[in-house]
Amino acid sequence: MQIRGVEKQFAGEVALRDINLDIRRGEVHGLVGANGAGKSTLIRCIAGVTVPDRGTITIDGTELRHGSPRASEAAGLAFIHQELNLVPHFSALENILLGAPKATRLLLIDWKTSGIAARAAAERVGIRFPLETRVSELSVAERWLVMISKALVRRANLIAMDEPTASLSAAESEQLFRIIRDLAGDGVAILYVSHRLDEVLDLCDRITVLRDGAIVDREVRGKLDKKGLVRAIIGHDVGHGEQRERRVVPRDGTPVFAARGVARGEAVKGVSFEVYPGEVFALGGLVGSGRTEVARLAIGADKLEAGHFEMNGARLDVADEAEAVSKGLALVPEERRAQGMLLDQSVAFNINLASLLQLRSVPGLPFVSAGKARGRAEHLMKQLAVKAPGAGAKISGLSGGNQQKTMIARWLRPGTKVLILDEPSRGVDVGAREEIHGAIRDLARNGVGIIVISSDVEELAILADRVVVLREGHVTGELVGDEISEARIIELSYMHGSEIGEPMEAKG
Asked: CA–CA distance from 212 to each of 81, 216, 418, 425, 480 (Å)?
């Protein structure tokens, strides 16, 4: 692929500026940059979803027709987005073949014949589950294999992958990396978009850095280290997280929130911990360790089978999420687009969604004051440095980091006592991550109980004042202050029951 002089503006704002880029057969090409740097716009131009204002894109010397997704697919281009575009109630086989030509018999689809290519692609990427399995029953890692198989059935010679490891465990990520290397070895080009810079540096043959819509750096493997890559992405160095002063909060008072032996099936087995005012508390562990399940139990999305929660020393019983919110317990969910946002609504609407009672024109009447709503949204957008054309802009048009800050802004209301943030910096760049971390620390200092859940051990080591680590539904240990390090979190994450004896409870 040759991209020459591609430019794009939206409402006078430059999204892409004179982009010149080559992608070669059989290479893994990293595309990195801050949220809003232009990565998504460039990929949409390649995919035919967005029409560039000027410039050309050629595949094997043939110019690609702008604005035609069908032309991009016919040219051998495939795109796997972070929010996987699969039909949950269809089988894996049906999803792989969706949109592809299929053999028919008596005007009906001949799944046996049509499935030959699909099964060959599935075998190539190492799918072990039956292709008749519904996608809704598959793990995120298995769904990624389905998406790659879907691209191979269409004989893709370039596959763009957006944040492929954002929801994968370390072992699942390694499996994906092996598949990517195998595909590259067979001549397939991979355009790899990720904010996980360590894996970009390790996996990619070449790296292109975008900033403010322009290419600011490009290097081959080994010519950039992580510090240099961060500097290229945001234009300056960032402070090292371990240099910050951690807060060791006195724990002789009443915790703002506590779990007391909470349990549900095999997912959560007698978990206890306490969160004190002024500290950033974190739950660590591998994907599937029970962290998100604890959060769902806390807000009433799932029902407890044993134990209970407490808020400010009093037992907390909630029947559902609405009652949890009314009692001051809020969650920024792991999948913000699917579970947290109304994508067709404005930034202001999404920010104010939990505060409609306070924004009424007349108390007692179900009418929201447009002036109050706009003023509150604009104030919070300024407070959290949300970059958007305005409070009335659709939230779907914001970058991932700004969407996440909008979700945090929703809960900056007087009634919020405890805020749980599940994967708060997933899919955001290093600059936005710093801003989100700053907002989290400010909330803790203002007395809000903060619980951070993250698969990123570096994030936990940077952000948390105290970490409780889970494995297979049990607490394996607790780290406080200077005890917190990536190595210790990983060590506790991999501890087995035989190594820790009886299931441990957190200190406190």
From this structure: 22, 9, 36, 20, 39
Q: Which fold has domain 242-500?
A: Rossmann fold (3.40.50)
CB 138 within 8 A of CB 92: yes
Question: DSSP secondary-structure letter at 98?
Answer: T
Report d(CA 39, CA 31) in Å as an integer. Answer: 7
DSSP 8-state assignment for residue 337: I
Calpha distance 107→304 (Å, rounded): 51
Q: Is 88 exposed, middle or buried (0-12, 13-18, 19+ CB in 10 A)?
A: exposed
Q: How many CB atoms within 10 Å of residue 189? A: 22
pLDDT for the residue numbered 247: 66
- Segments making up each domain of the chain, as ranges: 2-234, 242-500
Smallest CA-to-CA distance from 370 within 358, 379, 361 is with 361
Edge-first strand order for the sheet with 189-193 is 77-80, 158-162, 189-193, 28-33, 206-211, 214-220
Amino acid at 9: Q
β-bridge mates for residue 479, sequence order: 467
What's the full length of the chain, in residues?
A: 508
Residue 62's φ and ψ, nearest 5 degrees, are -100, 125
Summarize pLDDT for 63-112 with one digit per residue, the tens. Answer: 999 989 999 999 999 999 877 889 999 999 999 998 887 778 777 878 78
pTM (global) more than 0.90: no
> What is the dihedral angle through the alpha carbons of 388, 394, 400, 405, rounded to the nearest 10 degrees?
60
Contact 76, 158 (CB under 8 A): yes
Residues 287 and 454: their CA atoms lie apart, in Å, by: 9
Residue 349's pLDDT band (boundaries 50, 70, 90)?
very high
| Intrachain domains 2-234 and 242-500 with the same fold | yes
In the CATH scheme, what is the code of domain 2-234? 3.40.50.300
pLDDT at res. 503 = 41
Per-residue DSSP letter, 394: B
Q: Report the pLDDT value the prediction gives residue 16, as an integer from 0 to 100.
A: 94
DSSP string, 265-304: TTTEEEEEEEE-TT-EEEEEE-TTSSHHHHHHHHTTSS--
At 207-254, the pLDDT tens digits run: 999 988 999 999 999 888 888 888 888 776 654 444 555 666 777 789
CB 201 within 8 A of CB 214: no
Residue type, 69: P
Q: What does pLDDT average to over the chain?
A: 87
Please name the helix (run of DSSP H) or strand (run of DSSP E) that holds residue 177, with its range, or none: helix 170-185
| C-alpha distances in Å from residue 156, one per residue of 181, 208, 457 | 15, 22, 35
Question: For residue 414, which of 447, 385, 367, 451 has the smallest C-alpha distance?
Answer: 447
**Of 372, 385, 463, 450, residue with least CA distance to 411:** 450
Q: Where are the beta strands (DSSP E) in 382-445?
A: 418-422
For residues 31 and 16, give the distance between their C-alpha atoms in angstroms, rounded to a whole number.
14
DSSP β-ladder status, 466-471 and 449-453 = unpaired
